[in-house]
């Protein structure tokens, strides 16, 4: 009987909203070191290349409007002679360091804040409006999933600290989540003003996303087309504005794909597998990504969420009739993200791309867990085994033991992921730590501060010296998660060329140790 009414009642689930408060506090605390270490962040490689013209304009004029105008002009040039992702290119040329080295701190603030807000907004509204989940259950799930997605990011620097790579992938991934949140509100909200406002904002946002990275653009287009078909079948009145939104992103996506510069870049870079091989590689990588993303702590998280997700599924009005078909369909959507990269670059998958596939893994898992649990609940909800399972979670002591046991195992499994090796000075070197722990470690041991000092000295010297050929000392520290990469001892290396171009030098290189 208890099971048919929901796995966990409102009283047992949220006494005085204590779980929400505890998880919210933990989540906020986890963000603090991520923002703090961002103040020691500095530009890297492509930040310099894409900031050359805009930085020069700002140095000459001090005008922000002139910088924006220059970024737009350079976007058009790049569209014609290198790549078609016009919206992303426009933002790349506005990397904060063009306004001064110290302004680069804004990169992490923008990127982290956008990602956190997008993940929380999407998961919360997705569960609330599509599955009729309770407010507190939606908040807990959104916070827990976003926490794990950030803590176990494959390459954190490429998503939250290196502006050029992050704004191209993670930022546009965040924009896509905002778009799908607006679409959800437009379709499911009962308040007409909210639906109208969501639809109005969604159209231009969709156009912007279509001009971003191809992986996010493609999967967003496929999701919107799916929703259009679903709304037509259900004869939902939202179908017309939804078609407009889909057309908006479709047009910009087509403009991006058909850019003259894409052919030039493809000829220069090479490596294309062709359509069929790219699709096969996408499915192979999709399966690998799911397996590699299911780390021990992540698995523990999903186990902890099962009672909560079951309750969400049980209270939903959806029928959950086709779990296998839904799993296959969402897996295809998930895998589609890799196709553009494999088509354009062959088997080369950049970390920044891996990151957004890893982020979407959490959404893929939550959706399929709810759907599968909904199927089980609708079909076997009154079975003796499930009823006993339900009663277990109705008992305060047993529920507390379950939560605390999972929490302890989660913490232990996080420790188990860490790697300890011998550092250059003979001391212990820690790596592969959860993101917040990694940031805290770099702050405590002074590496972040030392990195900031050395990067500032470099920037000042490059700005002040009249030398056309500059030799720099190697960095003594490379703190995670803010360090991305450095130049080399080869003055002809492309990384060196970008830095030299930004500061108006003939060449720049590192001295030999």
Automatic annotation (TrEMBL):
Keywords: Membrane, Transmembrane, Transmembrane helix. The keyword Plastid does not apply. The keyword RNA-binding does not apply. The chain crosses the membrane at residues 20-38, 103-127, 139-155, 167-185, 215-233, 240-259, 295-313, 325-344, 356-376, 400-418. Pfam families: DUF6056. This is Glycosyltransferase RgtA/B/C/D-like domain-containing protein. It comes from Eshraghiella crossota DSM 2876. The lineage of its organism: Bacteria, Bacillati, Bacillota, Clostridia, Lachnospirales.
């Amino acid at each position: 009987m208890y099971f048919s009414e929901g796995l966990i009642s409102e009283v047992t689930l949220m006494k005085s909203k204590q779980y929400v408060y505890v998880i919210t506090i933990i989540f906020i605390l986890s963000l603090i070191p991520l923002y703090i270490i961002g103040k020691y962040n500095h530009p890297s490689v492509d930040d310099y290349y894409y900031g050359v013209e805009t930085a020069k304009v700002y140095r000459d004029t001090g005008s922000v409007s002139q910088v924006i105008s220059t970024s737009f002009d350079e976007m058009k040039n790049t569209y014609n002679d290198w790549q078609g992702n016009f919206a992303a290119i426009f933002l790349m040329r506005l990397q904060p360091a063009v306004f001064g080295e110290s302004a680069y701190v804004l990169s992490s603030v923008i990127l982290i804040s956008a990602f956190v807000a997008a993940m929380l907004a999407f998961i919360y509204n997705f569960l609330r409006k599509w599955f009729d989940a309770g407010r507190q259950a939606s908040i807990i799930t959104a916070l827990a999933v976003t926490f794990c997605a950030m803590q176990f990011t494959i390459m954190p620097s490429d998503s939250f600290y290196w502006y050029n790579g992050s704004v191209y992938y993670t930022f546009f991934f965040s924009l896509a989540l905002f778009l799908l949140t607006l679409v959800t509100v437009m379709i499911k909200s009962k308040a007409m003003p909210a639906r109208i406002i969501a639809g109005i904002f969604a159209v231009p946002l969709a156009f912007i996303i279509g001009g971003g990275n191809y992986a996010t653009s493609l999967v967003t287009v496929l999701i919107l087309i799916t929703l259009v078909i679903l709304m037509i079948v259900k004869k939902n009145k939202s179908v017309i504005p939804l078609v407009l939104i889909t057309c908006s992103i479709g047009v910009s996506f087509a403009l991006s794909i058909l850019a003259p510069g894409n052919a030039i870049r493809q000829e220069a870079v090479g490596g294309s597998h062709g359509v069929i091989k790219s699709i096969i590689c996408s499915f192979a990588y999709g399966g690998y990504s799911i397996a590699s993303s299911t780390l021990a702590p992540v698995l523990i998280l999903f186990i902890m969420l099962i009672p909560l997700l079951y309750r969400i599924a049980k209270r939903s009005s959806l029928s959950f009739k086709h779990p296998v078909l839904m799993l296959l369909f969402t897996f295809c959507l998930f895998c589609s993200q890799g196709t553009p990269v494999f088509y354009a670059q062959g088997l080369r998958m950049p970390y920044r791309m891996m990151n957004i596939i890893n982020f979407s893994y959490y959404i893929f898992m939550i959706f399929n867990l709810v759907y599968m649990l909904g199927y089980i609940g609708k079909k076997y909800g009154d079975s003796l085994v499930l009823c006993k399972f339900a009663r277990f979670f109705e008992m305060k002591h047993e529920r507390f033991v379950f939560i605390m046991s999972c929490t302890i195992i989660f913490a232990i499994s996080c420790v188990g992921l860490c790697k300890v090796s011998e550092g250059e000075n003979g001391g212990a070197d820690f790596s592969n730590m959860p993101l917040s722990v990694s940031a805290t470690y770099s702050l405590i041991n002074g590496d972040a501060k030392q990195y900031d000092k050395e990067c500032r000295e470099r920037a000042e010297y490059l700005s002040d010296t009249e030398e056309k050929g500059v030799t720099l000392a190697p960095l003594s520290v490379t703190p995670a998660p803010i360090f991305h990469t450095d130049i080399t001892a080869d003055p002809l290396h492309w990384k060196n060329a970008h830095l030299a171009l930004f500061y108006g030098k003939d060449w720049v290189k590192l001295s030999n140790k």
